[in-house]
């Protein structure tokens, strides 16, 4: 069964596509320069793929954008699955229980 599509992947894909269109280049051009298949780039732009960090950095480099800009603001809430707890929440809960 395929992994559920995450909001994180959708956001990344939308941002990549927006930058690519802003630069006025085709998926084929970006894929060629990033040394990847155009089908894979299309899946990433549609939020249907969860690219590796190296792929994100490579595409960002080709598009001349900081990879951090593409990932800014994407957090645990944008990932599918069970409820996520961060360290701050855990510490607060442990403090609450110890009172």
Based on the model shown, name its key terms.
single chain, mainly alpha, Lambda_DNA-bd_dom_sf, elongated, 99 residues, TransReg_Diox_bact_type
Question: What does the model show?
Answer:
The chain is mostly helical. 61% of the residues lie in helices and 0% in strands. The protein has helices at residues 7-23, 27-33, 38-45, 53-63, 67-71, 87-98. Helix 2 (27-33) packs across helix 3. The model has no long low-confidence stretch (mean pLDDT 91).
Tally of extended strands?
Answer: 0
The structural class is mainly alpha
Q: Hey, roughly how much beta strand do the residues contain?
A: under 5%
Low-confidence stretches: none
How is the biggest beta sheet arranged? none
Q: What is the count of helical runs?
A: 6
Shape designation = elongated
Give the radius of gyration: 17 Å
Pfam family, one: HTH_3
InterPro entries: Cro/C1-type_HTH, Lambda_DNA-bd_dom_sf, TransReg_Diox_bact_type
Domain HTH cro/C1-type: 16-70
Protein name: Helix-turn-helix domain-containing protein
SSE diagram, text form:
Elements: H1 7-23, H2 27-33, H3 38-45, H4 53-63, H5 67-71, H6 87-98
Helix pairs in contact: 2-3
Entry summary:
This protein is mostly helical and 99 residues long.
